[in-house]
Specification:
Layout (H helix, E strand, L loop, with lengths): L2 H11 L20 H15 L5 H17 L3 H17 L10 H19 L1 H9 L4 H4 L8 H18 L1 H21 L9 H12 L8 H14 L4 H14 L3 H13 L2 H7 L1 H23 L1 H4 L1
Helix pairs in contact: 1-9, 2-3, 3-4, 4-5, 4-8, 5-6, 5-8, 8-9, 8-10, 10-11, 10-12, 11-12, 12-13, 12-15, 13-15, 14-15
Length: 301
């Protein structure tokens, strides 16, 4: 791809990463009855517990959507952003050619941005001041906005990776700015089972060297993420799919993915009910990713 073509790709394919993207055609939701809103969130939460069943996940999304159609309820928006991400990453990616996942990631980005915007007056003011630049605004958020920022970056990262090289480069600044703020707010990776550490590990594995990629840093962050949450099989899937492949380490690739397949999610959830409720369904779906990636080994090495 020529330099000129990459510039054109940047201009046409970075629009979803911010710039008040959620405000396009959006009017601030006001006036929802507090009791009805809480009932809607409770209903969404009840279906979310059973999200391993795609139909239940759809019902959870519908309940959260109903709440957020009536109110800029930040907690509901954040839950919805995560639910959109989970649908895209764990189900839609396996539908036909996988392209259906992009619309879910785009919904996740816009919804998480909306949560950031209405959840932080400082962020809202900064966005107005910078003409909607998340990259230039994110440094003002506080810790209560960490979940929304993390799910925004997660959806953006998967969307950009799936779209290709030029889109990764075009969104590099936004991704780095958001995750630098997340790391400042959560330097030891407490949030979402080593989430920030795992994100940086994947980022340094995927980005080309001239755009910030660094395989030594990637391995260091993967080690930190595993140390923080050794049960989080998503870390091993990302490690195998990205770092092991890039470093041409097939034995490591095989070992990591087989560890994912062998991990007993049911037993772990029984022993760790709180963490299991938060992560168990995701770990089951990571096994499906591992199976499919392992099946492509001959094409990857």
């Amino acid at each position: 791809m020529s330099r000129f073509a990459i510039v054109l790709a940047f201009s046409s394919l970075t629009a979803c990463s911010g710039g008040h993207a959620f405000l396009q055609g959006h009017s601030e939701a006001k006036g929802g009855d507090a009791e009805a809103l809480e009932a809607g969130i409770t209903a969404g939460d009840a279906h979310w517990v059973n999200r391993l069943d795609r139909a239940e996940l759809e019902k959870s999304i519908a309940a959260y959507e109903e709440v957020t159609a009536k109110s800029e309820h930040v907690a509901a928006l954040t839950k919805l952003a995560r639910a959109y991400y989970f649908m895209g990453d764990s189900f839609a990616r396996f539908d036909a050619d996988g392209s259906a996942m992009f619309s879910w990631f785009e919904k996740g980005m816009k919804t998480a941005e909306r949560a950031l915007y209405y959840g932080s007056e400082a962020f809202k003011a900064k966005m107005k001041e910078t003409d909607g630049s998340i990259e230039k605004s994110i440094a003002v958020i506080g810790k209560k906005s960490l979940p929304a920022a993390y799910w925004f970056a997660s959806a953006l990262g998967k969307w950009a990776k799936g779209k290709g090289f030029a889109v990764i480069l075009g969104n590099k600044g936004t991704i780095e700015a958001v995750m630098q703020r997340c790391e400042t707010l959560d330097p030891t990776g407490e949030f979402y089972h080593g989430g920030v550490l795992r994100y940086w590990a994947a980022f340094y594995s995927i980005a080309p060297g001239f755009a910030g990629g660094d395989l030594v840093k990637a391995r260091s962050y993967f080690d930190k993420a595993i140390a923080k949450a050794p049960y989080n099989m998503a870390t091993k899937v990302l490690w195998a799919e990205n770092l092991s492949v890039k470093e041409d380490k097939q034995d490591e690739f095989n070992t990591l993915l087989k560890e994912v397949l062998d991990f007993d999610v049911t037993a772990w959830t029984a022993d760790n009910p709180e963490a299991g409720a938060d992560l168990g369904p995701e770990l089951v779906r990571e096994k499906e990713k591992a199976r499919r990636i392992l099946a492509k080994a001959a094409d990857l090495f």
